[in-house]
Amino acid sequence: MPIDTLERFLAALSPHDRDQVRRQPHDEQERLAAAWEEELRTDTDLDTLSELSPAAAESEAAKRVVEGRFE
Fold first, then answer.
1. 11-70, pLDDT tens digit by residue?
2. Helix, strand and coil in the chain, % to nearest 5
3. What pLDDT is recorded for position 70?
4. Dihedral angle of Cα 34, 37, 41, 46, to the nearest 10 degrees
5. Which residues fall within 8 angstroms of residue 63, CB to CB, at 6 or more apart?
6. What is the pLDDT of residue 46?
7. Alpha carbon distance 12, 67 (integer Å)
8. Burial of 48 (0-12, 13-18, 19+ CB in 10 A)
9. What is the rounded CA–CA span in Å between residue 62 and residue 10?
């Protein structure tokens, strides 16, 4: 996975969630970034949001991935 995917994922997170993810091993960070990309690709609700605000769609997908991992 290109590092820019991980960087984009981290940028889409809230500061609190970003800190949580950065404390994880690099392999786990990459796994979460891949899950984030999959969420963006497959969730049709995010397609509509993405048309209005790509950054908001990325943030929502990142939030969902982190919530699924840490909560």
1. 999 999 999 999 999 999 999 999 999 999 898 878 777 777 888 889 999 999 999 876
2. 85, 0, 15
3. 67
4. 140
5. 13, 14, 17
6. 80
7. 14
8. exposed
9. 8
Q: Which residues have CB under 8 Å from 45's CB, separation 6+? A: none
Give exposure, 16-45, as e/b (b: 16+ Cβ within 10 Å). Answer: ebbeebeeeeeeebbebbebbbebbeebee
More confidently predicted of 26 and 3: 26
Q: Enumerate the domain spans of the chain.
A: 28-40+51-70
Are 13 and 59 in contact by the 8 Å Cβ rule? The answer is yes
Q: How far is CA 29 from the centre of its chain?
A: 10
> How long a stretch of residues is the chain?
71
